[in-house]
């Protein structure tokens, strides 16, 4: 579901918390709102589920004005995860997660299945945790329950206000990783407030940078990273050099195809298949199941297999890992695997383009 803000303004007394905001958030993506303290991020987020009402302008969800939707229905249709977690202390983990499904009058069997599924999704054993009370959980575990609760009714939109803000760095990293794994499966429209640039770059597909109630810039993460004109955005990015950003980007659309060299079959060992890159600088060997074995420069092929290089990156690796391996191997490309199978190569040129 897309979310669109049209000429949205919000005043607290005489103070303009949001000034004429025009913004479209992307369906099925993680949309980050980042900015300095007091820039209006939380206000913008809470306008979406009408915890706060706008003074002027319209917010559209799937082209429908949210002020035309019953406010309770609107809230039931969205997940909401906040930093303070807000778990009910006298409810068990099960009861906390089941709040919205119960409001939606799901039958008990369906709720139970959903709670178990969600606990597994956030890496907590349902048997062990279902009947615990919030006071029996660590901060990181509570936050996982908070995320599970936000996802409970399988809403299309999930609003997250610094959900990992209060967690120590190690647990935070782990939670962010699980969250990315979950989002890969569920592909929800997520609006995620943070003031942590690392978190924004790690999690965001799209990033909106806010400052004093206005939007300084919005766009795909890759484009925000390359921003050179807006000094506020440059300041937010801080002393991150381009090489550091590579850690937050993956090889997605940069993988180059390879071609199978039919007549080279069995040249080396009868169990292997040969591929090359399109410019035929390298030859790649796989076994009969197409599992990667190694690669060589073309001129070395058939000569000396002891020079066979075995390094590769996984499709999900970030570009910094890829670059590291290239430098280590003194090569300008690295094979890319998915599930041990060779799917292409990544070149140095495509990292810097
Ligand atoms: N209920 C309120 N009454 C008066 N002023 C408010 C109220 N809520 C927020 N503000 C002010 O509006 C501005 C924007 O607040 P908001 O919470 O949206 O900022 P934020 O970007 O989320 O900040 P932070 O990162 O510190 O949470 C701030 O200056 C804040 O003091």
UniProtKB/TrEMBL annotation:
It holds the Pfam family ABC_tran. Keywords: ATP-binding, Nucleotide-binding, Transport. GO terms for molecular function: ATP binding; ATP hydrolysis activity. Gene3D superfamilies: P-loop containing nucleotide triphosphate hydrolases (3.40.50.300). Residues 3-237 form the ABC transporter domain. Coiled coil: none annotated. It comes from the Bacteria. SUPFAM superfamilies: CBS-domain pair, P-loop containing nucleoside triphosphate hydrolases. Signal peptide: none annotated. GO terms for biological process: quaternary ammonium group transport. Belongs to the ABC transporter superfamily. This is Proline/glycine betaine ABC transporter ATP-binding protein. It comes from Haliovirga abyssi.
């Amino acid at each position: 579901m897309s979310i669109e803000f049209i000429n949205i303004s919000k005043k607290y007394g005489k103070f303009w918390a949001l000034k004429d905001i025009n913004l479209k958030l992307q369906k099925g993506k993680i949309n980050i709102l980042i900015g300095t303290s007091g820039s209006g991020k939380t206000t913008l987020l809470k306008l979406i589920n009408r915890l706060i009402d706008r003074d002027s302008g319209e917010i559209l969800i799937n082209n429908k004005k949210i002020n035309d939707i019953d406010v309770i229905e609107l809230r039931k249709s969205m997940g909401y995860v906040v930093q303070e977690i807000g778990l009910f202390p006298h409810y068990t983990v099960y009861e906390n997660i089941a709040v919205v499904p119960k409001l939606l009058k799901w039958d008990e069997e369906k709720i139970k299945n959903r709670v178990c599924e969600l606990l597994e999704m956030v890496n907590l054993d349902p048997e062990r945790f279902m009947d615990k009370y919030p006071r029996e959980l660590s901060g990181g575990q509570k936050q996982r329950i908070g995320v599970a609760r936000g996802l409970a009714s399988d809403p299309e939109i999930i609003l997250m206000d610094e959900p990992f803000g209060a967690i120590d760095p190690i647990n935070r990293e782990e939670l962010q990783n699980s969250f990315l794994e979950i989002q890969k499966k569920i592909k929800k429209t997520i609006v995620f407030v943070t003031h942590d640039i690392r978190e924004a770059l790690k999690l965001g597909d799209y990033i909106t940078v806010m400052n004093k109630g206005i939007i300084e810039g919005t766009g795909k993460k890759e484009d925000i990273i390359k921003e050179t004109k807006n000094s506020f955005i440059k300041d937010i990015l801080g002393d991150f050099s381009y090489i550091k950003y590579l850690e937050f980007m993956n090889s997605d659309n940069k993988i180059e195809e390879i071609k199978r060299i039919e007549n080279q079959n069995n040249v080396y060992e009868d169990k292997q298949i040969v591929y090359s890159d399109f410019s035929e600088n390298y030859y790649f060997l796989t076994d009969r199941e197409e599992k990667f074995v190694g690669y060589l420069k073309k001129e070395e092929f058939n000569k000396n297999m002891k020079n066979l290089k075995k390094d590769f990156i996984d499709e999900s690796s970030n570009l910094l890992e890829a670059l590291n391996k290239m430098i280590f191997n003194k090569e300008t490309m690295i094979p890319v695997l998915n599930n041990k199978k060779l799917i292409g190569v990544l070149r140095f040129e495509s990292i810097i383009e």
